[in-house]
Specification:
alpha/beta, TIM Barrel, 2 domains, 5-stranded parallel beta sheet, globular
């Protein structure tokens, strides 16, 4: 993993080092804590920074025979770190092997391979560095040249820490809220009524009808917008669509308010109507709408009972996507109310489907208005990233792709942008080597810089505090 890691030809090397390497980062979707950014948290040790909440690592530790006590249990942080160190050599072939060592190199200057023998030394060295201001949460963000961070936030969130960060003139990167109204869409899920009451409380709207529910959602979107929010996100594990009148949906909503379960068809109508309403609102404000599709969550019911969600027991789903997705997008398009939209699927079988669907709804004079989102979750590895980009290139415009995001709970995961940038340079370099595209550094450099940074900058139109922007 030297300076030309993943770069196997001269063109790729030149593209990476001359055009991609030093660009800043726009991380337009992640799960990090705005409170920890505001408080400029210092991690007490590498386990807290690396293993707390990281279900990518938890899954492979379980596969390596590590007992749960050393993963999410009561073992000491040192013992958990040692368990991870024992696992790392076994992750060869998994991107975690490369990400682990990139993070050790870029943030801590450690070029040793992590294993059980080197772990005690690495533990001591990293923990000493984490005590310094340079590697506090804000230090890690600044060191990574991050200009914009979009977190994932519930509509009922007060956004207290986003407001405080915005008022802090000593911190240049923007930390913006991302609107994630999943709890308001899951009408049959436990906790729906409690969530509606929370929405009522924060919006000061008495919710006794579907129309009042939409008014409350709209007020929260406007609140997010006032704080610089320009991105929504929806976890749509099963894509569905069913048209309905406002009166039908009002009856369905009131049925749920009374404590009854709605039917599958009623749920489709409720979700479809709500997404159409939200899409129109997003479009009116110039927002981008994200759909994360085809995840199968909480597969292990026994462990879900013990640990709850987001603990490493999810997988790809294989539901059909194309027809209901097109119906939803077309309903918005018919009213010229389709917002900028980014589509992701957790199942790579959908790559060609999504790449072709976005081409049906491009337009409005917006470059790359419809985006096939970057390889997500189980796909954000070397093969997954390349497959996603090649699918996009084959039927659309790779040159207008808005590129990478972290989708992470870790402040150390910004090296994934480096990993991604190396891969796009290698892919384009191979095209040149194969005689498929000209060796035109100006053209190729512009495309590489666009996919790495500038396309996202133009697409989202954030009012960035540019930490390290470069002249094109």
């Amino acid at each position: 993993m030297g300076e030309n890691f993943l770069l196997s030809n001269d063109v790729a090397v030149d593209l990476y080092h001359q055009y991609a390497k030093d660009l800043p980062i726009i991380d337009y979707h992640c799960h990090i804590s705005p409170q920890e950014i505001y408080e400029n948290k210092k991690f007490k040790n590498i386990t807290e920074a690396w293993l707390y909440g990281d279900h990518y690592k938890w899954r492979v530790m379980r596969a390596n025979g590590i007992e749960e006590e050393f993963i999410t249990g009561q073992a000491s942080d040192y013992d958990k770190f040692m368990a991870w160190a024992r696992t790392v050599p076994m992750t060869i072939g998994n991107p975690l092997y490369n990400w682990t060592h990139l993070e050790l190199q870029r943030f801590f200057g450690i070029y040793d391979i992590l294993n059980e023998k080197t772990a005690p030394m690495i533990w001591e060295k990293v923990n000493a560095l984490l005590a310094e201001d340079e590697l506090s949460v804000r230090g890690l963000i600044t060191k990574s040249k991050v200009n914009v961070i979009v977190t994932t936030d519930d509509p009922t969130d007060t956004l207290e820490y986003h407001q405080k960060i915005k008022q802090d003139k000593d911190f240049e990167p923007q930390v913006l809220p991302g609107f994630r109204p999943d709890k308001g869409l899951e009408i049959n899920r436990e906790g729906f009524l409690q969530w509606v009451q929370l929405l009522s409380d924060v919006s000061n709207v008495s919710i006794t009808s579907y129309d009042e529910f939409l008014q409350a959602l709209e007020s929260r979107i406007e609140f997010f917008h006032e704080l610089g929010g320009k991105v929504s996100d929806h976890a749509i594990d099963v894509m569905m669509f069913a048209p309905a009148t406002q009166e039908e949906v009002d009856d369905i909503f009131k049925k749920a308010l009374s404590g009854e379960k709605v039917t599958e068809e009623e749920e489709k109508k409720y979700k479809s109507s709500t997404l159409i309403f939200l899409g129109k609102k997003y479009a009116s404000l110039g927002w981008a709408m994200q759909f994360h599709i085809n995840a199968l969550r909480n597969n292990n019911s026994r462990m879900y009972g013990q640990l709850g969600p987001d603990t490493g027991y999810d997988s790809m789903n294989d539901d059909l996507v194309s027809k209901p997705l097109v119906q939803l997008l077309d309903t918005l398009e018919q009213e010229n109310a389709l917002p900028k939209t980014i589509l992701y699927s957790l199942n790579p079988k959908d790559n060609q489907v999504l790449a072709s669907i976005i081409g049906s709804f491009q337009g409005g004079g917006i470059r790359g208005k419809m985006q096939f989102g970057t390889a997500w979750w189980f796909n954000d590895n070397k093969d997954g990233m390349l497959d996603q980009m090649k699918a996009l290139a084959n039927v659309g415009l790779f040159s207008q792709f808005i590129g990478m995001l972290t989708d992470s709970r870790s402040f150390l995961s910004y090296t994934r942008h480096e990993y991604f940038r190396r891969l796009i340079c290698q892919m384009v370099g191979e095209w040149v080597e194969n005689g498929e595209v000209p060796n035109d550094p100006d053209l190729l450099g512009e495309i590489i810089q666009g996919v790495s940074y500038y396309n996202a900058k133009e697409y989202f139109q954030f009012e960035e505090a540019l930490v390290a922007d470069l002249n094109k």
